[in-house]
Amino acid sequence: MLFKQQALLRQKLFVLGSLAIGSLLYLVARVGSLDRLQPLCPIDGRFGPHSQDEIPLQALQFKRGLLHEFRKGNATKEQIRLHNLVQQLPKAIIIGVRKGGTRALLEMLNLHPAVVKASQEIHFFDNDENYAKGIEWYRKKMPFSYPHQITIEKSPAYFITEEVPERIYKMNSSIKLLIIVREPTTRAISDYTQVLEGKERKNKTYYKFEKLAIDPNTCEVNTKYKAVRTSIYTKHLERWLKYFPIEQFHIVDGDRLITEPLPELQLVEKFLNLPPRISQYNLYFNATRGFYCLRFNIVFNKCLAGSKGRIHPEVDTSVITKLRKFFHPFNQKFYQITGRTFNWP
Ligand code: A3P
């Protein structure tokens, strides 16, 4: 009898203990995400009319869980209707530059509770076949969000593709455009490294960077090489300026985003008229990766995939010098147009 009572007591204690530990864990997780759950200040009207001034708490709580499920296509129509979720066209686009840090920028902005990212590169405006499918096709590619949130997508090919500025202008002439740039020679080498890795994966051989970047006939920089052309930022930007005023662009320093991401993100928050919500808490340096990683709350954090932050091959210093000299006047023009100066050599 006594033994039976003791067993019952142990069972009760076990249940109570489990409940207490569960509640404690829940509380710890909530406290970790409190910063993200603060109601937001009003978002500037430039993003269109808002029926309410702040994102409901519910929206933020659901952002990581429910929205993720919806993105995966696991939501029922009823759930979507119930939570008033919509697929919105982007209010801001990261248009490039390839290898500038576009993924890091998108993922880091997605830390903001008012931002919802399109995870995949959609390639709507640069791909004729996709573009022919129409704007509704594009909108349906967007993640579910609350009406107060803004959707951001990134497709770095937009920056260098001739037809894109006009097409984006036709969709939304007041859209905000983000361009993340790195020192042009480093960006070109990063671009090359990505292509090289693709070739190696297919067991193919590839030229050395020096051979592609320098024209063997003239010994000058090979301006036909795409990795070089992409780094002539001013040429591409000038095409965009035929459609959009410079105020609609924000230039992000991709080199600084690597070493000191927070101030760069704060500038973007300002440009997007978002209340400052991304904090140092959200970004931690991971020594193993050698990069900053993202912390959403006490339980959820992540680093970018291994394909971001590749080791670059060593490049002949005379080629680097030649490239830097080549980019120099274009860089000056770029500083002049954008009003943002970088310490590029
Ligand atoms: P490297 O691979 O040359 O180092 P994109 O996303 O536009 O392809 O840019 C890739 C680059 O983002 C990487 O180039 C890397 O340096 C940079 N980057 C910036 N912040 C990063 C981060 N937190 N984690 C990983 N890579 C980051």
UniProtKB/TrEMBL annotation:
<keyword id="KW-0735">Signal-anchor</keyword>
<dbReference type="InterPro" id="IPR000863">
    <property type="entry name" value="Sulfotransferase_dom"/>
</dbReference>
<feature type="binding site">
    <location>
        <position position="182"/>
    </location>
    <ligand>
        <name>3'-phosphoadenylyl sulfate</name>
    </ligand>
</feature>
<dbReference type="GO" id="GO:0008467">
    <property type="term" value="F:[heparan sulfate]-glucosamine 3-sulfotransferase activity"/>
</dbReference>
<keyword id="KW-0808">Transferase</keyword>
<comment type="similarity">
    <text>Belongs to the sulfotransferase 1 family.</text>
</comment>
<feature type="binding site">
    <location>
        <begin position="308"/>
        <end position="312"/>
    </location>
    <ligand>
        <name>3'-phosphoadenylyl sulfate</name>
    </ligand>
</feature>
<feature type="transmembrane region" description="Helical">
    <location>
        <begin position="12"/>
        <end position="29"/>
    </location>
</feature>
<protein>
    <recommendedName>
        <fullName>Sulfotransferase</fullName>
        <ecNumber>2.8.2.-</ecNumber>
    </recommendedName>
</protein>
<keyword id="KW-0472">Membrane</keyword>
<dbReference type="InterPro" id="IPR037359">
    <property type="entry name" value="NST/OST"/>
</dbReference>
<dbReference type="GO" id="GO:0000139">
    <property type="term" value="C:Golgi membrane"/>
</dbReference>
<keyword id="KW-0812">Transmembrane</keyword>
<feature type="disulfide bond">
    <location>
        <begin position="293"/>
        <end position="303"/>
    </location>
</feature>
<feature type="binding site">
    <location>
        <position position="292"/>
    </location>
    <ligand>
        <name>3'-phosphoadenylyl sulfate</name>
    </ligand>
</feature>
<keyword id="KW-1133">Transmembrane helix</keyword>
<keyword id="KW-0325">Glycoprotein</keyword>
<keyword id="KW-1015">Disulfide bond</keyword>
<keyword id="KW-0333">Golgi apparatus</keyword>
<dbReference type="InterPro" id="IPR027417">
    <property type="entry name" value="P-loop_NTPase"/>
</dbReference>
<feature type="binding site">
    <location>
        <position position="190"/>
    </location>
    <ligand>
        <name>3'-phosphoadenylyl sulfate</name>
    </ligand>
</feature>
<feature type="binding site">
    <location>
        <begin position="99"/>
        <end position="103"/>
    </location>
    <ligand>
        <name>3'-phosphoadenylyl sulfate</name>
    </ligand>
</feature>
<dbReference type="Pfam" id="PF00685">
    <property type="entry name" value="Sulfotransfer_1"/>
</dbReference>
<feature type="active site" description="For sulfotransferase activity">
    <location>
        <position position="99"/>
    </location>
</feature>
<feature type="domain" description="Sulfotransferase">
    <location>
        <begin position="90"/>
        <end position="334"/>
    </location>
</feature>
